[in-house]
C-alpha cells in the first residue's frame, strides 16, 4: 500500500499553492479536485464578473498575476490555473469528490466513492463556494416569487422589469445591486446591521488588521466571520448608476416573508408595510466546505475549527492543515497559507517518518528531537464531552438545506438555471 506524505483536497488558489510548495520540498502527494476542469470556484462565477470587477487576484507562487488581463473572470482565471498546473506538473486528479477523511492509527484515509488514498497528512483546500449560506426567515416557504443565492446569480438581464429584494451587506450584495438596479423595476436592499463603508483607502496595513481579526477568532476556535465584517465596503465606478438610482439606501431586515413580498418594519403601522417582490436574492455569503472532515471531529465546542498560531494546523489533529479557511479566504491569504501548510506537513512528516525527508549529513534525526512534555498522538487527543459531528449540529426549526429552497410552482430551481457554455454544470462542481 502506498502511503503519501499528504493529500491536498481542492485545486483552487489554496490547493495549487500548497501543491507547489509540497513539490518543492519533495513531499509525495496528490491533489484531489471535485471539478471536472481547472479553475477552482472561479470557473463557476457569474458571466458578468469581469477581470475589471474582481478586487485583484494574487499571483500563484513563482508565477505572474492574472489581474491585468481582460475578459470574464470565469474564463481568464481557470485558464491561468490550468496552465499553472501543467507548467509545474502538479499531481491533480479530477474529477474526484472526497466524501470522508478517516483516521486509521497514525495515518489518514481519504475516501471518494470506491477510491481511497492513505496518507500521513491532509491539506484541506475546499473553499466555500459549494456551501452557500441561506438563512431562515419566517414565511420563507410561502413566497410565490423566485429565490436565489449569489452562487446562482444568472446576470442582470434575468431581473429586467422585476421587483428585487437583495439580502446581505457584503461585496456580493453591493456588486449584484450595481448590476440589477439599472434594469430592475425597483430594488430593496436589506441588511441585518448597518453597512460599514470604507471612507479611506484600504491600505495594506488596514488589510493586515482585518486579517488579524479573523485570525484571532480562528485561533480561539470560533467560526470565521463574514469577510465584509472586517474589511468594510466600497463603491466603484461600476456601481455609480445604481447609487444614483438610490439602490444603496439600506433598509433593516424584513420581519417576515409573505407570498407576495416582504413585510418591512415601517412605523407607524404595527403591521409594517408589504414591499411587493418578484425575486429575493440571498447575498448572504458562504460557509467552509468541510462536511467530509466530520469523522475527524475537528470542530471546537465554540463552533469553528481551531487553528494554531501558524494559522493552518488544526489544533485537534495536527495531521490536518486548513488553507483558504478564515483568515486565508482570499487569493493572497490562500497563497501564503499554502506555503505555511507545506511547512506544517514537512514538520509532521519529519517527526513521524524522518526517513522520508533528506537529512543533511550529521543532522539529528527529528524523532530524537525533544518532544514537548505530555505530547499525545493526535488520535488519542481527548474530545470534549458531548462533542457532535458538524453534520449533527442542531438546526433551527424549519431550517432548510439550500438545495431545498422553496420554488414557486413551475419555476426552475436556481441550480437548474441554464449554465453558460464555458461553465461546468453545478452537478460536477464543488
Ligand atoms: C464573487 C467572488 C469574487 C471574489 N473576488 C476575489 C478577488 O477579487 N480577490 C480575492 O483575493 N479574493 C476574491 N474572492 C475570494 C477568493 O475567490 C477566494 O477566497 C479564493 O479564491 C478561494 O480559493 P480556494 O482555493 O480556497 O477555494 P476554491 O477556489 O473554492 O477552490 C476549492 C476547490 O475545492 C474543490 N472541492 C470542494 N469540495 C471538495 C471535495 N469534497 N472534494 C474534492 N474537491 C473539493 C472545489 O471543486 C474547488 O475546485 C472572491 C470570492 C467571490 C465569491
Ligand atoms: N468583485 C469582487 O471581487 C467580489 C464580488 C463579490 C464577492 N467577493 C468576495 O467574495 C467573498 C464572499 O462575499 P459575500 O458578499 O458573498 O459574503 P460575505 O462577505 O460573507 O457577506 C455576507 C453578508 O450576508 C449577511 N448575512 C449573513 N447571514 C445573514 C442573515 N441570517 N440575515 C441577514 N444577513 C445575513 C452578512 O451579515 P454579517 O456581516 O452581519 O454577518 C454579510 O453582510 C468575499 O471574500 C468577498 O470579498 C468579491
Automatic annotation (TrEMBL):
Keywords of the record: Oxidoreductase
For this protein, the record's InterPro entries field holds:
Auxin_biosynth/cation_transpt, FAD/NAD-bd_sf
Annotated spans, Disordered: 352-430
Which superkingdom does the taxonomy of this entry point to? Bacteria
Q: Where is the composition biased (Pro residues)?
A: 357-421
Annotated transmembrane regions: none
Which Gene Ontology MF annotations are present? flavin adenine dinucleotide binding; monooxygenase activity
Enumerate the Pfam families for this protein: Pyr_redox_3
In Swiss-Prot or TrEMBL terms, this protein is called: Cation diffusion facilitator CzcD-associated flavoprotein CzcO
